[in-house]
Amino acid sequence: MNFKRILLICLLVSLGSTASFAQDRLSKKARKAQVNESQGTRYFIEGEKNLILNDLEKAFFYFQKALEFSPEAPAIHYKIAEVLVKANQAEKAMPYATKAAELDGENKYYSLMLAEIYTNLKQPLKAAEILENLTEDGENNQQYNLDLASIYLNSNEMDKALVALDRAEEFYGVMEPITLQKQRIYLNNNNLSQALAEGEKLVEARPGNPAYVMNLVEILYNNDRVDQALELVFEEISKYPNQPELQMAAHTLLKDKGDIQQSNHHLYSAFASPDLDPEVKSKAFISQLTEIKTQKREILLDSLETLMSTSNPENADIYAAFGERRMQEQKLDEGIDYFKKSLLINPKNNKMLEKVILGSFGEDADFNELEKFTTLGVDEFPKNPEFWFYDGVVKSAQKKDEEAVISLKKAIELNANKNPQLDQVAFGSLGSSLYNLGEKEEAFRNFDKALELNPNDEQVLNNYSYFLSLEKKNLDKAKTMSYKVVKRFPDNGTFLDTHAWVLFQLEDYEGAKKYMELAMKHEAEPSGVMLEHYGDILFHLGQKNEALSYWKKAEGSPEASDKLSQKIKEGKYHE
């Protein structure tokens, strides 16, 4: 009995030990699984952090580490695919996105990632298959019909695009982008009636919106249905008489039919409204300027101008329209003034800026005023070489030579040899400013560059030869250049004066006298420089009293040399 009892106790102990060992083994597996899951989660979180920070390399590393611990986790496959797509590696992303979608077919974002990858790989119709499956799955995914329609449109699958757009319209209701796209498809298929039906649907869904009426009117007009278009416009005017867009449409259609009186009636109504876009008014006004000039046209323009002044005072587009009319009437100063007013409100009109600048050059140019607009040009259009060129020329004319050099060099740099004429004139102007700044050798190099492009530029030839004469350098070259100019322009006092002074420096005093007398003859009031130079020539010809007389005539002139008072005081020539 005792032996049996002892044996039973031993057996129970043995069984208990075996059960305990089995439990220990299962616990280790569970613990290991928990450790793996925890480690994988930590790597996944690190991957997410780096993805948010757009550190794609680190994000990819951590997601790959997470995948080692959880190879069947669809979210990790999805995230790796996302990283690779962001890194423009769609092909490498494909297997990960495919695996994510296989592991969890219910998650639409995995399918959308796959569709995106197909699109990136230029396989849009495969992307469309995925979106088709999504949109078939109840109402929750109907928003993807617009993406689907876009794919079909880009793939020229117009019938399928229409189906997708119809489904999108069912989901969103009647919307302008959907309607307009459907119209384009129908018009492309020569299905005018269906295109019109779509437009009518939009007008009914959004009553009182003139843009949708204009859409229909445009389609009708472009398909030679002017009467039908007019009928629609009149019907809408009867409902909404204060909509100026409808009045403008009636004006255009009636004018097309030749009913000018009724057309102008609607034009007046449109222009009287402050709600009509001033740009529309401006364009309509300018279009009237293209009509044959008659008394009726002028009365119409006067009336429209009054209406615009009243309903849209101080507007850039309106000032521009007034300016165009004045320019057509050859009232150039008034036209330029209106353009200036327009530009001070809206300076982003490069063509008008150029009109103002070019129209303001002349003998009586106000360079201080003009500089406001050349500065505006380089500020608003800093990559346009023309405005830098104009700015340089204007600054040079004001003796702001340091600033002129900066602008002219910038003009040449931006031009990059595209416009040889601009380069040529810029080199010439740059030469003059550089000479004034004492950079004489660089000035002469720029004059040479200008003459390489145009050997007959009279301004460059004149300035170059004059500066050479002042330096008593290359005088034979100076003589050849200045003679070339006076031969072409025998009545120009400035050019004759330059040639005379070149001859003076060559000690050809008789020749100098001849050309200086011609220069003064062609000037209503000879400049102080001419008078002083003529005195210098006479002195060297032995006519000292006459020389003194002309030096005294030059006295007080801002153009006279700093040696003039000494010449008068001592009665002799000083260089």
From TrEMBL:
TPR repeat residue intervals: 40-73, 316-349, 424-457
Keyword entries, A-Z: Repeat, Signal, TPR repeat
UniProt cross-references to SUPFAM superfamilies, sorted A to Z: TPR-like (SSF48452)
Region (Disordered): 555-575
Keyword hit for Thylakoid: no
Signal sequence region: 1-22
Listed InterPro entries: TPR-like_helical_dom_sf (IPR011990), TPR_2 (IPR013105), TPR_rpt (IPR019734)
Top-level taxonomic group: Bacteria
Name of this protein: Tetratricopeptide repeat protein
